[in-house]
What does this fold into?
Amino acid sequence: MRSVGTPGEILGLIRRGEATTRNAVAGATGLARSTVAGRIDRLIADGLISEDGDAPSTGGRPPALLAFNRHAGVVLVADLGATHGRLAVTDLAGEPMAEVAVDLDIAAGPEAVLHRVEAEFDALLDTTNRGGDAVSAIGIGVPGPVEFAAGRAVNPPIMPGWHGYPIRDRLSARFGAPCLVDNDVNIMALGEHWVAAPRPDNLLFVKVGTGIGSGLILDGCLHRGAQGAAGDIGHVQIAAAEGVLCRCGNEGCLEAVAGGRALADQLAGRGAATATSRDVVRLAAAGDHIAVSAIREAGRRIGRVLASMVNILNPESIVVGGDVAEAGEHLLAGIREAVYRRSTALATAHLRVTTSTLGDRAGITGAAAMAIEHVLDPIVVDASLLAAKGATA
Ligand SMILES: [Zn+2]
It folds into this structure.
């Protein structure tokens, strides 16, 4: 669809590099040059774009180049896990300016955890010499189901005390900026999609950690589903798990035999010193045959479920992340084997199955992407320019 050229849409053209001169913006939008000039002046006055004349000269006066000003604001991001978290301040291109990894206990409840998050954000802002008024947006990931529109966790199994807690409203009020909250797997999917080059329209991110979950990017957008529960593949029933009790209360779930916790339990039952998924990965990295074959079999089981998803959704990319993915080729080999054998030839013709390139930074990268794409959405930009105009009128 042809852009109609509101200031927010013009900002998008400049940001994506699709139009970087006034003439190009006029050409792309079909607007009169005088209209384009007024809107660009407005974006420059607001600090969102800058204009310089450093374009290479081909004789005559070179056209001034328009560029998105990534330093027009900062974004606060946090990826909160069960026992640790990663927090950062990024610029409006998602580039981290300061970052910290901390131990925290999500089960300590929202008051204690968010108090800590706020203190860490204050400290990170201090180190970047940006005041709180520079905060454009906040993006948070939590290890449980989230009602995205309300910014609240909903019956999160490993987050006692968080059900219904207004995470979004608290942080938004504290820092005076919009806040977006989503579950950890969704923000990891957004992070992998954000850095992929070329960026695929359809990407399936699978997290294999203590549990198993997935995030779906369909036609370029994160698919959350009606209640935000889309992609919860850990609790898909598989034959190999028949009779095995899952932490969700059902029997037969994929996660109950192929998740990191299940692998640790299986190996511990055979005498290995494995308490967590990380222990399993460490053992496999040391060449332990039993650990390697357990991870590979887990890969095949996960792959069978993914094969069904490939047949239904036809993604061009599957990215595997989470602790157990750090076992690298062992998990990936099992997944690939099952996906390529059980999906249709057409669906796998151009399918790539890879491990995460971001590792444990996928979450904050995606939280930044989520917050930035919200605050730079043309509708949001136009509304805030209008509000600023009203305030100064
Ligand atoms: Zn289950």
Q: What stands out?
A: The pocket of zinc ion is lined by residues 235, 246, 248, 250, 253, 255 (CB under 6 Å). DSSP finds 14 helices and 14 strands in the chain. Residues 7-69 form a domain with the Arc Repressor Mutant, subunit A fold (CATH 1.10.10.10). The chain has a mean pLDDT of 92.
